[in-house]
């Protein structure tokens, strides 16, 4: 009862008690000092690069995995009937790694089988390199982003303890705690960027492996075709 009377007599105190202290992400970023803002900016740039590479690669891999299920049957018919130029034309009209490997094999027909196999393997290595273009950047971001975020936290902690040391132990706990949790935002940001890049990297590797397995299966099928008796 006395508490309610005091609050009624002092409206300002009631307003202070009813006010809820909220944390704004923007405030956390810009209240952390120049070092924190710089590190957060670097992490945002890394996130943008990681997302750009991920979506660019996922569309490229999706396009590379598309091929007509009847493609190898048509190649088989052309090669069996001795229509090598028609087989090459079909490969040239089909924009996929499988078609380019097959075209490389068709162009080597008449040479020893080992030479054909080597040519297909070399072409396959080049196609895999194209599929994995810039994917290693995602792995770099996944590993570097958490460390950069932790660096920001360490810098913030050093500044907080430096303030405590220079104030002769009279630093306000409120401002000290505020500086510490603001510094921790860089670690959170680094972990978020790192996790996103890590998931994206592994997804791209998985999708690339599927395309590579399809390339290998079609290469084996083509070599088996050359081994068949005419």
From TrEMBL:
InterPro entries named in the record: ExbB/TolQ_transport, MotA_ExbB_proton_chnl
Transmembrane segments annotated in the record for this chain: 28-55, 137-160, 180-201
Localization per record: Cell membrane; Membrane
Record-given protein name: Protein TolQ
Occurrences of domain MotA/TolQ/ExbB proton channel (ranges): 94-216
Cellular component terms per the entry's GO annotation: plasma membrane
Annotated source species: Zobellia galactanivorans (strain DSM 12802 / CCUG 47099 / CIP 106680 / NCIMB 13871 / Dsij)
One of the GO biological process terms: protein import
Membership in a protein family: Belongs to the exbB/tolQ family.
Main location per the UniProt record: membrane
Membrane topology classification: Multi-pass membrane protein
Keywords from the named record: Cell membrane, Membrane, Protein transport, Transmembrane, Transmembrane helix, Transport
